[in-house]
Amino acid sequence: MSFRDRTHAGQELALRLLERAGSGDLVDPLVLALPNGGVPVAVEVARALHAPLDVLVAREISTPIRPETAIGAIVADDPPLYDRQSLTMMHLSEDRLGDVIARERTELHLVEYVHRGHRPPPSVNARTVVLVDDGLTTGLTAMAALRFLRRHEPARLILAVPVGSPRTTAAVRSECDDLVCLHQPPSLHAVGEWYEDFGRVSDTQVADMLRAFHATA
To answer: Is the Phosphoprotein keyword given for this protein (predicted)?
Structure first.
C-alpha cells in the first residue's frame, strides 16, 4: 500500500490515532509537526483529534564533503544530536563542526520565524504531545525533537508517522512513550517511495496550511 499524498497519509494516521483517543490514551493532545513535510500530515491529525497544531523546527546536519549524508540534527538551542557511526566513517569530530552547526542554527531560527513570527512556541508541560512527520528513515530529526520535548516534561509523548524503517522505529521507540507507525517495510530507502505524490512542501505552503487550520479551528 502507498499513500496518494501527505494529506491521505495524515487521514490514515488520524484514524489510527482516533482509536487511541477512544481508549483514553490521548488526553488534552497538542499536535506538533516537523516541517516542512510533516505539516500536511499533521493538519489531518490535528483536525481529527480536535487538537491545536503548531510546528517544531528541526534541521539535519550534513557537511560540504557529503551533503547527502546526515550526520546529526539540531532543535532550538539544544546541543546537536550526532550519528556517531557517520562521524566515525567520515573521520569527523564534534570540535571540527562548529561552523557547520552555527550556520544550521542560524537557518533554523530563520525558519522558525518564517513559520511562527513573534508567536511564542506552545507549552508542552503536562500535555499529551503528538509529534508528526511524513516518515522515518534516519530518524535523526525525530530523535532530536523528541529529546527536546522530553526536557519540557509533557505528560505523554507520542511520535506518529505514516511509514518508517523497522530499524529506525526500533531505535526511536525508547525516546517516546508511544510510537504509531502505519507501515514498516523491510527495506525503506526513502520515504518518498511510499507516496504517489511526494512533491516538495514550500515555506509558503506551510504558512498557508497553518493559516487555514487556525482560521477554522
So the answer is: no
Q: Which of 10, 43, 49 is nearest to 26 (CA)?
A: 49
**Which pTM was predicted?**
0.94
Q: Is the peptide bond before 125 cis (omega within 30 degrees of 0)?
A: no
**CA 200 to the chain's CA centroid:** 15
Bridge partners of 74, per DSSP, are: 59
User: Measured between alpha carbons, how far is 134 from 131 in angstroms, rounded to an integer?
Assistant: 11
Q: What is the largest CA-CA distance in the chain?
A: 51
User: Helix %, strand %, coil % for the chain, to 5?
Assistant: 45, 20, 35
Bridging pattern class, strands 156-163 and 178-183: parallel
Tens of pLDDT along 155-209?
999 999 999 999 999 999 999 999 999 999 988 889 999 999 999 999 999 999 9
Pairwise CA distance, residues 206 & 30, whole Å: 18
Strands (E), 57-153: 58-61, 72-75, 81-82, 128-132
Q: Give per-residue pLDDT as tens, 20-44.
A: 887 777 888 999 999 999 999 999 9
Number of H helices, E strands in the chain: 7, 8
